[in-house]
């Protein structure tokens, strides 16, 4: 985030607008709406600005720019057609530690004027950092149609009752739930119809009915592979309702950014070969926060029920009487294959798919390698980067062809995604050559060769697969 969003209270504070033309007039009008004391410095003014000056709404500093105009200013807007003057004003403002906006010059500006959606007292501002103002305006137009004008009256009602609500509901989690019930209830409809007294009465009744202590709960939520666009709508809602988020290390920053800003985030670091938080400690955290009446989201990469110990955690919650629900996520096998252009099943090459974990030597010993080595199936191997030599040798020992294609998808669905391809014979060497690291999913089977022709996301695959991969299915060819 290059710019820090900031809403400034300019009421009664002087703002200098340098330039008396149409742009200066537009800037002055918005500043007047915000209650600022506006001084306009220019040799001449537009008719509207001249009228405002005669009415005393703005102060006219007549003549060429003078450095002394900056003496009383909290903000400065440079709105002339003289670029050299703009540079001088920006430098002088910087020296005085006064924020300046230079019209149509993002580099010289220390603050930017956003596109605004006004639902007073609610204000929504959109900025492109000064680099694409038309995009910001387009977004504003779209949001204008989505945000109900009743938002303003609702905010006014809540402002009037804020002190009473805080006094009656001192617990933050309880107060948050009250607001959610209020905003999803009849109050907005009543205010839309102009029935203010009924809206106040409805709010009071809800305040009286709010429980003294909320019941805690846990949502077991799959975050998907990393692309925040793959999070489900129910998952997004859960993140915005959470009081506490217990998240794995590999949950992407972009997914975490979708959560409510004031939710407590606790990293429960679990990464292949590097467990800083034990499962028992995670269970204890879920119990602690849910027992205190908080809504807990246990946020896991991928899907919580696919090699995510989700079942174990539900068993623990059930044994302690903690209410829970599960919101599935897109597991790595589905996401990594899709983002690498690899169909897990294909009627010409694979009629089944197996999801396998190769997390440690003990789990390898329990696998049915004879079944896994069968032809015309796809293997999706989770957490297997440290066990590649064992995987290769076991499959070859049990009859899988050395020419079987593979694809290693590292950081699947994320901007840094890489796909390394080859055959079972050179699996270990290719992974070492390209320094493949966790998180990475291993896909073994004939369909893996399609990565070279069907890839669509990120960089093209690296590595080689001997022979020509099938360009199209027989059905498509027909």
From TrEMBL:
Limits of the Tetrapyrrole methylase domain: 218-427
Annotated positions binding S-adenosyl-L-methionine: 225, 301-303, 306, 331-332, 383, 412
Region (Precorrin-2 dehydrogenase / sirohydrochlorin ferrochelatase): 1-203
A single MF term (Gene Ontology): precorrin-2 dehydrogenase activity
Family: In the C-terminal section; belongs to the precorrin methyltransferase family.
Catalytic residues of the enzyme: 248 (proton acceptor), 270 (proton donor)
Domain Sirohaem synthase dimerisation per the UniProt entry, residue ranges: 152-207
Gene for this chain: cobA
Location of Phosphoserine modifications: 128
Record GO biological process: cobalamin biosynthetic process; methylation; siroheme biosynthetic process
Keyword terms, alphabetized: Cobalamin biosynthesis, Lyase, Methyltransferase, Multifunctional enzyme, NAD, Oxidoreductase, Phosphoprotein, Porphyrin biosynthesis, S-adenosyl-L-methionine, Transferase
Chain sites annotated for binding NAD(+): 22-23, 43-44
Protein name per Swiss-Prot or TrEMBL: Siroheme synthase
Pathway: Porphyrin-containing compound metabolism; siroheme biosynthesis; siroheme from sirohydrochlorin: step 1/1; Porphyrin-containing compound metabolism; siroheme biosynthesis; sirohydrochlorin from precorrin-2: step 1/1; Cofactor biosynthesis; adenosylcobalamin biosynthesis; sirohydrochlorin from precorrin-2: step 1/1; Cofactor biosynthesis; adenosylcobalamin biosynthesis; precorrin-2 from uroporphyrinogen III: step 1/1
Reactions accelerated catalytically: siroheme + 2 H(+) = sirohydrochlorin + Fe(2+); uroporphyrinogen III + 2 S-adenosyl-L-methionine = precorrin-2 + 2 S-adenosyl-L-homocysteine + H(+); precorrin-2 + NAD(+) = sirohydrochlorin + NADH + 2 H(+)
Region called Uroporphyrinogen-III C-methyltransferase, residue ranges: 216-478
Organism: Dyella telluris
